[in-house]
Amino acid sequence: MKTMTNIDDINKDKDSALIAVCDDYKAYKFLTAEHKSIKAIALVAVAAKYKALKWVPESLRDDKEIVLTALRNNYKAIKWIPKWLLLDDEILDEALEYGGDSFEGIINVGIFNKLIQASNVINQFTVEELMQNKSTIKKMMSKNATLVISHPN
Prior knowledge:
This protein has helices spanning 7-10, 14-23, 33-36, 39-48, 58-61, 64-73, 83-86, 89-98, 104-108, 111-118, 127-132, 134-142; strands spanning 121-126, 145-150. With 153 residues, it is mainly α. Helix 2 runs parallel beside helix 4 and helix 6 (64-73) runs parallel beside helix 8 (89-98).
């Protein structure tokens, strides 16, 4: 596998950009704005490594296919998902599914902080209560509620 290291080489044309990202997802970071805005190239990058989502232009970060691809790669992609997409049922289902059987991982990467920013009604739940019932989150989100996580002492 040939690795392109020269930025001019990887940005020569669409095919060169795609080959570079196929070789190493980190090449996506060095693509021109024009090449970064090509959905197929962005999909290859986020499929290879969820962290590539942070370099994807906002216009493509709003694309459900790209977001779901990154999320399926690793639930930690949620860090770079726009707040409004977290309220989408399919995105939330995937985050909860790929986050494992508990919410601890999702809590650690800040999904709840983003939900707090996107909502306005306060309800209080313990981490244990949330871990027992995923539907609680969905129900609250449908009511545009803020989640305040309390940790038992």
